[in-house]
Amino acid sequence: MRVLALSLASLTLLCLLSGCQSRGPDVSGRIFTVIPPNDNRDYAQGSLLIGTKRYPEYRMSVRKTTLIRQSSGIFPHPIRFSDLRVGQTVQVETTGTLLESFPAQAIAARILVVQNATPAPR
Q1: What is the pLDDT of residues 11-52, one digit of tens each?
Q2: Which of 27, 84, 99, 117 would staple 92 via disulfide (CB 3.0–4.6 Å)?
Q3: Distances (CA, A) of 22 to 26, 33, 56, 58, 109
Q4: Secondary structure tally for the chain: helices H, strands E
Q5: pTM of the model
Q6: Which structural domains are found in the chain, ordered by start?
């Protein structure tokens, strides 16, 4: 009975922990426009236009609840929306809904900057 209870507790813990992991990026591409918020809504930080190989343009709404991180070393560190720049390569996880318009539109849940913008040649 004790082994059964321990096995059940381990299985429950495993199921709970696996649900806490992110599912991976929905969109990976390069930022080509950073759009500041156009109103005073409390939830909006702005938007990003992202180009990918699969689809020419995505408009990602960035909320104050969006987790934005910079990949550096083993552990990504948090950054602000104002730190995002044109030319950076990002991976974006959405909240789930993707509007199939042009540009395609979604709300970003998580943004990971995987590569900084490359400087222009001199």
Answers
A1: 555 544 444 455 678 899 999 999 988 766 666 889 999 998
A2: 27
A3: 11, 26, 25, 21, 10
A4: 1, 6
A5: 0.74
A6: 23-115 (2.40.50.140)
